[in-house]
Each structure stands twice: as C-alpha cells, then as structure tokens.
Amino acid sequence: MSTYFEQTYAGPYKGLNTQKPDLLLDPSEAAAMNNVWLRNDEIRSAPPFTKVFVGPEQNNATLGQTSFLDANGQNHTAAFTSRGLWQLQAINNVPGQNPWVYVGAPSLSVGTPIASRSFANVLYYTNGVPYLLSWDGIESAPQVASQLNSSTFGGQGGSVGGLFLYEINNQVCLLNCTLFNVAQIANPIPGTGATTLAANSTTNFPQLLWYSANGIPNQFDPTVNISAGFNNFLEVPDNFTGVMAFGEVAYLFRNNGITYQTITGSSALAPFYFDHMWSSEYGVGCVYPWSIAQYGSVGFFVSTEEIYKIGVDTFEAVGGGSRDAIMADLAAAIGNPVAGVISSYAYGYIYLRYELCIPLAQGTHIYSYSLEDKNWLFQSYPRVQILGRPSVCWR
C-alpha cells in the first residue's frame, strides 16, 4: 500500500536559519539556500550576476563607485582604482571600447574600499591615503583638498587624509587619519600622541578625527581658519573603524565601542561634543570596518558577537538564525568584507536590503537582509571578488 504526503509552505518566509536542527525548524525557515530570494511572500530565483559595464582596468580592481551632480546640473558616475579616478562615458556601449575615461591621479591605496561624499556639488574621496581628494566634474583633474600650511607642519607643509569620510555641521570630517609632512617635526601637532615625525613621512593615527572649516570643505588647517581642527581620542583603548552620520549627530564606531558626536552650536573653536556611549573597556563596536552601511536613518554593522541594525533611536540585533553562518564565513575571509544598503536592483524593482559581501578563497558569499521582510538570504558567486562597497549609481 502506498501513502501520499504533502506539505504547503506559505509566506511570510523567515529565511535562512542554520542554528537549529533541521527537524526543529519552523516551516517558513530554510536550513540551506543558495541564490534564492524571498520577496512579497514568494519564492523567487535570484537575478543573475551580470556585468552591465566592465571595470575601468582589467588587472586593477575597482575600489568603489558613486554618482554626484556638478554645479552645472550634470550627473557624473565615478569609479576608483589604485591609479585614481575614472568617469563613465555618456556613450558607453561601444563593443571593445572601455566605457570609463581616466580623470586622473593622485593614486589611492591598493585593496582599500573608497570613502566618498558629495558636498556643494563637489565629490570628495579618500581611502587611507594621506590626503583628501576632490573633483567638481568640471576641472580636468582631481585636486588635493586637505593641504596643511607650513606653520602647521614645521615650516614645510603637509596634508591629511583618512579611512572614513562624512559630513556634519557643514564640515567635512576625516576619521582614522593619516598625515604626511615634508620636514622632520620634533614637536608634532599637539594631541596626536607622537613625539617626532620624520621628514617626508606618512603616519597613521587611528584614534584621530580631523574636520574642515565650517562651510569650507577644502580648508583643514586650523591656523588658517579656526573652525577647522582635530580631536585625538587618546582616552579610548581602540581604533576608529567607521562612521554613520544622522543629520546633526554621528556615531563614530570603534572596535569595542561607539562614540557619539553632536554639534555644540556655541563655538567655532569647539564645534562638536563627544560622548563615549559606554565606559567599559569592551563593548559593542564594529570589528569589520566596511561592514557598516547606511540608508537614510537606518544603518547596519557587524560587532564581535552579532549583526546590528541601528538608527537615531533604535539598536537591534538582527543576526537571528543566520548569525553563526555569517560569523563562520567572516572568520574565514581572505580580504575586507564590504557592505552596502541596496534600495533597488532595476528601475521599478524595489527591494531594500543590507548586503554583506565576504571574500573567501573560492569566491564571494553574500548574506542579504531584507528590511521589509526581516529575513536573511544567501548567495554564492564562485571566482568573484568584490572589493568596492555595493551601491546604487546613476548611469
């Protein structure tokens, strides 16, 4: 005698759960999935991973891309490699032709994701090099926007850059800074914690925040404009690993903590107030710098023990049943995990997701969290390495 058994699965689906025995899973959860999307209570196949455009350079990885509007109302889509800045051509589908035009140097760090920001119709960018670069979309080449004059640097001058870049109070801020100086300095800038800086040296200060003058994003020298300046947080035991800015406040992430930055509104000499959100030596922080991604008032980051969603007044663990699988892949990563919040995948195809891309020896694993459905999906792309942070750009 034969028997027949049937079970129907219906949404809303809870997505990937690797932390329970298969027999104990809720019928709306999956013990394993690959390249499957759950959307609008439907099970769908993931769209194919396609290259709409080739990268700017065949043997030099793209470190990120972004879009901005120049002062003439012209849209620009820019990409970055270690050689410098590239722009997508207006006519970009000619077979055999590179769709990107090289705008110019200075060069950028190899393998480090780009931090970029559009301010007053000018694109600012850096990635750990000892300078902040700018391009207005009109000039023929990028410019160094963070020169420091001779009186700041012992009579010879220098510049400042950083790993992370954001804007608050009409001031461009650099976090986890790198300084370059021309001459040897026996008594370097007060508060940096250094005693001597050698001539023509580049020095990283991972606890340093440097900000531009108010409304003047290409003036970082406090001896020229008193509203420019810096803070070195020698009282914290760890390094800055990223930032989220929410209007008049910003969360400055460290390995084991978060520093809260807000506007004082009372003094150009001290424009910001800082508060370390917990005083314990170890606490919730961001241990993977480029796991931080933000969309409006919502952001995500990866701490030692969990994946968190954070907002102006929210702080929520969202790893759920996928947390252990994500953490295992992060432990096996061969490079920088990078993340972004993607609002849409095509015109009219809205799908708001946090995507965490983890580079492994065999390719890239992508864990994707739906802000609407609150579930995790998994995608695997063999022989693909993602070095730039996922983003939505104009073209």
Q: What would you say about this model in short?
A:
2% of the residues lie in helices and 42% in strands. The chain is mainly β.
Shape: globular
- Main sheet: strand order: 13-14-15-16-17
Helix and strand element order: EEEEEEEEEEEEEEEEEEEEEEEEEHEEEE
Mean pLDDT, all residues:
88
Distance between the termini: 63 Å
Helix percent band: under 10%
Number of separate strands? 29
**Main sheet summary:** 5 strands, antiparallel
Characteristics of this structure?
four-stranded antiparallel beta sheet; about 400 residues; single chain; globular; 1 helix; mainly beta; five-stranded antiparallel beta sheet; 29 strands
Give a written overview of the molecule.
By secondary structure, the protein is mainly β. 2% of the residues lie in helices and 42% in strands. The chain has a domain of 140 residues. The chain contains one helix and 29 strands. It has a five-stranded antiparallel beta sheet with strand order 13-14-15-16-17, with no helix packed on it. A four-stranded antiparallel beta sheet has the order 5-6-7-8, with no helix packed on it.
List the helices and strands and how they pair.
Elements: E1 15-16, E2 29-30, E3 36-39, E4 42-45, E5 64-69, E6 75-81, E7 84-88, E8 100-104, E9 115-119, E10 122-126, E11 133-135, E12 143-144, E13 147-148, E14 158-168, E15 171-181, E16 201-211, E17 229-232, E18 240-246, E19 249-254, E20 257-263, E21 272-276, E22 293-295, E23 298-302, E24 307-311, E25 315-317, H1 323-331, E26 338-346, E27 349-360, E28 363-370, E29 376-382
Parallel strand pairs: 1-2
Antiparallel strand pairs: 3-4, 5-6, 6-7, 7-8, 9-10, 10-11, 11-12, 13-14, 14-15, 15-16, 16-17, 18-19, 19-20, 20-21, 22-23, 23-24, 24-25, 26-27, 27-28, 28-29
